[in-house]
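Example: HTH araC/xylS-type domain-containing protein.
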Amino acid sequence: MRRARDLIDREYARPLDVPTMARHALMSPAHFSRQFRAAYGETPYSYLMTRRIERAMALLRAGTSVTDTCMAVGCTSLGSFSSRFTELLGETPSAFPGRRHRGRLGGPGSGGGRAAGGVVFVPWDLYWGLLLP
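Written out as structure tokens, the predicted fold is:
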């Protein structure tokens, strides 16, 4: 399981699918998906997209365009990239670079996302990225 997670962390910008990740974990795709979710609290795809959004935050802060950022982090659909970004951070990628950001900590493996009342819960490592310049 750890090998597959390390693969995602290293290779987030290249095309990765569940069968590829499962091969690195030496499991069938279905078993891998279940075990990954049990171990890390989110699906392999959700974990991959969270890594991509973390990197996208840094690129957007550096002034990279939304479209170039989307492609640089391995997303092929600007729509799905924008939707996931907004889901995790509560604002669109185009609005992100211009504001000081604060997230509410979701804890390790929380998967991020919205809670009741519009509070944005951010994964632990993503939270620290918000605090650093």
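The helical segments are 2-11, 18-25, 29-40, 44-61, 66-72, 78-89, 124-131.
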